[in-house]
Write a structure and sequence with these properties.
- This protein has a single domain, classed as Ribose 5-phosphate Isomerase B, Chain: A (3-Layer(aba) Sandwich).
- About 50% of the residues lie in helices and about 15% in strands.
- About 40% of the residues are buried.
- The chain is built from 6 helices and 5 strands.
- By secondary structure, it is α/β, with parallel strands linked by helices.
- Helix 1 packs across helix 5, helix 2 packs across helix 3 and helix 4 packs parallel to helix 5.
Length: about 150
Amino acid sequence: MKVCIGSDHAGYALKEMAKKWLLDWGYEVDDVGAFSEASVDYPDFARKVATAVARGEYARGVLICGTGIGMSIAANKVRGVRAALCHDVFSAKATRQHNDSNVLTMGSRVIGAGVAQEVLRAWLSEEYEGGRHAPRLKKITALEDDMLTTKC
């Protein structure tokens, strides 16, 4: 599985750890930055990862910032992306099973490395269940389609 990973300056250290874990687990990983702890704007990296996932270049994406919130908000602006902010294993599993999330966001100032590793592994190992969840995903897609043509 190909995974695209990105962070801002606050998430840089945890992103570097996550990248190593992914490689150790046998995933193909592309890192779109940030490449240091120098201040950068998280929407730039959310856009890179989210658009690559939405285009089908990667099966999944991982984004890390200070809280994970900004990355989640920005990534979810990209049509076809279902970014989920997770700081616990239960949520990571549930969002894959029920929401077919394709981007995971985490906050380096919220979650420790040990839990982040468990969350990432759980999120990657779960499959979408479909079934009763499929009509809900269709409604999300319809909402995205409607918003492209509707002025609020």
